[in-house]
Amino acid sequence: MTIPAYETLKIELNDAVATVELNRPDKANAMNLRMWLELREAFKWIDEEAAVRVAVLRGAGPCFTSGIDLGMLGSVSEGIADDCEGRMREKLRRLILDLQDSLTAIERCRKPVLAAIHGYCLGGGVDLACACDMRYCSSD
Q: Within a domain: residue 1?
């Protein structure tokens, strides 16, 4: 068994518990496009890996996540730009569905997924936490 390596996530496996850590503490674990895609891949791996019995999702550093990376939103508007408003809306719809697939991968994971939330959890981070089976929050 090989634990996958990612740019924005850190995965550890100990005693059948897969810990998935949002690993952009310098950016308050803001969810950029790479993280959205890696979350989908990571939870597909967790779902298929027999050595994993449960997953814990947490954030590195002082917070769980600050939500969607605002830099990503700027590049999204450039990426969907089109002279035809209908095509622009369709590109945006497809992007939203693609991002939603990352949350759906967590929901579909047949292993229990626990969110360990500390510090702040904003915007898309709330959606991320809600995709998990259970949420545990610190008092801060």
A: no
The answer to whether the predicted template modeling score (pTM) of the entire model surpasses 0.85 is yes
Structural domains in the chain (count): 1
CA distance 36 to 2: 21
Please indicate, yes or no, if residue 35 is contained in any of the structural domains.
yes
Indicate whether 121 belongs to any domain: yes
Positions in the chain short of pLDDT 50: none
Give the separation between CA 11 and CA 5, rounded to whole angstroms. 7
Query: CA-to-CA distance for 97 and 133, rounded, in angstroms?
Result: 21
Predicted confidence at residue 108, as pLDDT, reads 97
Q: Look at residue 3 and tell me if it is in a domain.
A: no
d(CA 29, CA 74): 18
